[in-house]
UniProtKB/TrEMBL annotation, chains A, B, C, D:
Subunit (UniProt): Homotetramer.
Positions contributing to substrate binding: 61, 113, 157, 164, 188, 240, 258
GO molecular function: glutaminase activity
UniProt source species: Wansuia hejianensis
A biological process term (GO) from this entry: glutamate biosynthetic process
Entry EC number(s): 3.5.1.2
This protein's name: Glutaminase
Keyword set includes Acetylation: yes
Keyword vocabulary terms for this entry: Acetylation, Hydrolase
Stored SUPFAM superfamilies: beta-lactamase/transpeptidase-like
Ranges that cross the membrane: none
Reactions the enzyme catalyzes: L-glutamine + H2O = L-glutamate + NH4(+)
Superkingdom of origin organism: Bacteria
Amino acid sequence: MDNLLMEIIERNRNLVRNGKVADYIPALGKANPEDIGVCVADLEGNIYKAGKYNKKFTIQSISKVIGLMLALIDNGQDRVFEKVGYEGTDEPFNTLYKLDLPHVFKPANPMINSGAIITTSLVKGNGEEKFERILALIRKIADNPSIDYNHEVYMSEKSTGHKNRAMGYMMKSMGLINGDVESILDCYFKQCSIEVDAVDLSKIGAFIANNCKGLDAYGKIDREKLTSILVGIMSTCGMYNFSSRYAVEVGIPSKSGVGGGIMGVVKSKMGIGVYGPALDENGNSSVGYGIMKDLSRELKLNLF
Amino acid sequence: MDNLLMEIIERNRNLVRNGKVADYIPALGKANPEDIGVCVADLEGNIYKAGKYNKKFTIQSISKVIGLMLALIDNGQDRVFEKVGYEGTDEPFNTLYKLDLPHVFKPANPMINSGAIITTSLVKGNGEEKFERILALIRKIADNPSIDYNHEVYMSEKSTGHKNRAMGYMMKSMGLINGDVESILDCYFKQCSIEVDAVDLSKIGAFIANNCKGLDAYGKIDREKLTSILVGIMSTCGMYNFSSRYAVEVGIPSKSGVGGGIMGVVKSKMGIGVYGPALDENGNSSVGYGIMKDLSRELKLNLF
Amino acid sequence: MDNLLMEIIERNRNLVRNGKVADYIPALGKANPEDIGVCVADLEGNIYKAGKYNKKFTIQSISKVIGLMLALIDNGQDRVFEKVGYEGTDEPFNTLYKLDLPHVFKPANPMINSGAIITTSLVKGNGEEKFERILALIRKIADNPSIDYNHEVYMSEKSTGHKNRAMGYMMKSMGLINGDVESILDCYFKQCSIEVDAVDLSKIGAFIANNCKGLDAYGKIDREKLTSILVGIMSTCGMYNFSSRYAVEVGIPSKSGVGGGIMGVVKSKMGIGVYGPALDENGNSSVGYGIMKDLSRELKLNLF
Amino acid sequence: MDNLLMEIIERNRNLVRNGKVADYIPALGKANPEDIGVCVADLEGNIYKAGKYNKKFTIQSISKVIGLMLALIDNGQDRVFEKVGYEGTDEPFNTLYKLDLPHVFKPANPMINSGAIITTSLVKGNGEEKFERILALIRKIADNPSIDYNHEVYMSEKSTGHKNRAMGYMMKSMGLINGDVESILDCYFKQCSIEVDAVDLSKIGAFIANNCKGLDAYGKIDREKLTSILVGIMSTCGMYNFSSRYAVEVGIPSKSGVGGGIMGVVKSKMGIGVYGPALDENGNSSVGYGIMKDLSRELKLNLF
């Protein structure tokens, strides 16, 4: 298996050329597009890995899955989806305009930025506590207590994230956000700046694939339902407006981030973590997409 | 199994009250909301059924799956998706406005009306031939040579379908449609007026679930790929802008129509046909949704 | 005065380079961008002219003023503006998308295509009669019985006008249009193809500037009101989404057409007709705009 | 004249019933809808007034004219209109969505909130200085050194103005705003909270009607041009998306505010100030509109 992973990496390495490292903040622009890693974690606890699987990168939008998970744990499905929809969208991750159309009352889904700001706002906790709870949950489900956020990335996101700020205040004006917008965004920028590697992602994926087992400390949870929500939403919205094409070509519920990561969930089987910082025009890792496509075919993981 | 199906029907009968029979044309308004049927066809050829499984209704948007199938057979994936996207959308089935935004070059996906008009336009054949080929394909995959269209419904759709006409001419002006718009719409209105029952739908679903086996007469086809496209698109776009929520709650790739039908595909296992003409606010059968939810839970069919 | 007009033409001749002759249909593309004409008609019946003032060109969107005039005569202000708004817009003349937004119930104003199709639909008359009444009104107010439409341009507009067709069917589906869409569009394409010269435009402008005097044959009309509507709408919407800038720089209520004409109305003083077929990016005559600016300054006509 | 004004007030008093006092902040909701005042200031220095002409109210959006004036004085026409358009709009004053459409690069015009935030950002001065310069200009052109802002209204606007904040950050992300968004909004909220009466408004109107004479202290200014810009923009955009209808019915370039004021400019003749806090559905004073209509007819002021 490790050999297969290495082979798949090499087969897709040339896709680096189809992408470009995110550079809207300097800290991201420093990533090396040739750093490619992959890790598969099955539900028996086996870990298969290849390439730069232990290269750290920021989790970025993949944190939206964790934010949604904790918002659901803290509030339940109904209260979360009062404020954010379950609708795929043909708009990019940072779309704002629909929130200002009179027939729209909430963000389309929790995987676009506006929707993720909502789920962050719904995570319980005041000030720092909100972020600490998100960090604690990631550490737990990745089984890695050393996970932390990158202060430089966080500070850069915070100082340039004006469009996210616009979304935050727009949703405040719509009555969707309680509490202080700046403080919620602060948490959001921090959660996006959490550093992980491909191994961490694969373990988070495996945790979800295993029906979110191991959350006893969080009280009574309908784990089946929690998992269906997370995986169903990842499947239809996880790869931004490329989600539907990705469903066709890969067929593994996944979530990507502009840090270059992709996390895949194969229910009852495995979690997958991929890293490749060059991004295609949809903001997904270009190499990562190729690797997921090959993994899906080689291991017959396509759901569709 | 037949008992289970009957029980599920009865359990969901009260959902009739949450819906309303489509009445934009008189022929549809005559449907009896209490006529509820369900049929499951497995890949061994067994048929399980309950209720008004042999009640005829118009296939409406479920024909979009057949239109896409034939467009793919006739043109291949690349040429079809030059003119229509693979993107889920948070807009309703009859949305038009995005086609007039300067950054949008094609309909979001083949399951909304505009996208389906594109796939109809791509089906090979002049004049009547286009429709005859669609009808022949449905008859074949449903294994029912008696399937035909309802002339009254067709004439009504044709005389009131001005918004579809607007879409057609808009896409003509965008260079997405070759040929005569009225003649393409004529075919589209006819394909929507094809009459089926729940048994037909379950067999069409089973055909797709069986990797579209049996298309030899159509030449060399990558059946795996064809199936992934159909099922992937149904999963992310098949229930209109309710698709993502439906993925969470049901997790069976499905397509609905305003005639009251829902067709489900459980890959390598079975096809499902449900009928219940009362529609919820998303245009999906209200009872049908409840039945699909129960079937998914009882038979453990949720992919997510 | 004739000398001043000639001088102003020469001063602005180089603006030809800032524009491009419309070429969406071949007949328009044949126009010579160096053909520039201007004519001023005062209310005493004096005519001042220079350049190619008797060069014929199609009236195009300037006909929207006549269409509005006749719709108002036939229906009154209230019934016309039930179906079209009085709102300036920051969208181009052929915008469609807003009609599909749920909070929009009618076209923004009668100077964009969708709004003009509405006013054409409101002109009384069956089949050919509708167009004949529009033509008769133009002949009367331009005091030129030889005015007619260009059959080649009409046929070209008709065969390529798919976006206008999309608007027509969209508005039919919204309940804004009674009668047959194709027949209304036929009239619209014909009215746009009417041929005039700068002298004709100046006389139409003078007619309006003179409070629409001379419509006795049309029955009892509140001429003050009719004039205020026409001039107020021209002032705020007549130059497409350039109207507000034009108000600042020129300050003469005007209407332009892609045939290269601009008609100006200086109330109680004069009408102005300008011709220059090279169009700027807003679809207005580039030379015509320069000439109007100079005329406004030299003759102190700026209202603002 | 004073009698005519009183008569016009009484004639329109019943229009109070067609409107509603703005109540998005408590301080505005306290206004008495029966307090109606009007004042006309001609260019010879005569002042005619009637009703509650000395009732103080907040200037609100009428301050956008002053903000535009000072931005033009400080930067010139070209630099201002690089960042804000000259386009009328069919959207309400607080519209945001277009800024997020890919073909839109700046707010439509300086009379909607987003555009006014731009002009405020362009007024020279750091921190408090920006506002002090706006206040000084209003005091000067209204010839009333006692004008000041209402601290309670300012604090309320500041604490509830989240949609304006969203616009500010959106435009920051578009590169349209230099400097700190919160500090610019602070100035914007203060300028909207400036208290005036109908007399002040009439004098500001008369100042503009008199070609902005008296700005020598501000350096060399093309006063003709400055005036054309202000009046041209008021004429096409000053009454929000009602501007075009208002042009037809009143024909006096005007600007309204949700405080209940309307300021009219009759070039080379007079300024008009009207107060009536009940607002119609477009956010314009319902009584004020009626009064302006009657004034226009009685004094023959309609430009169109």
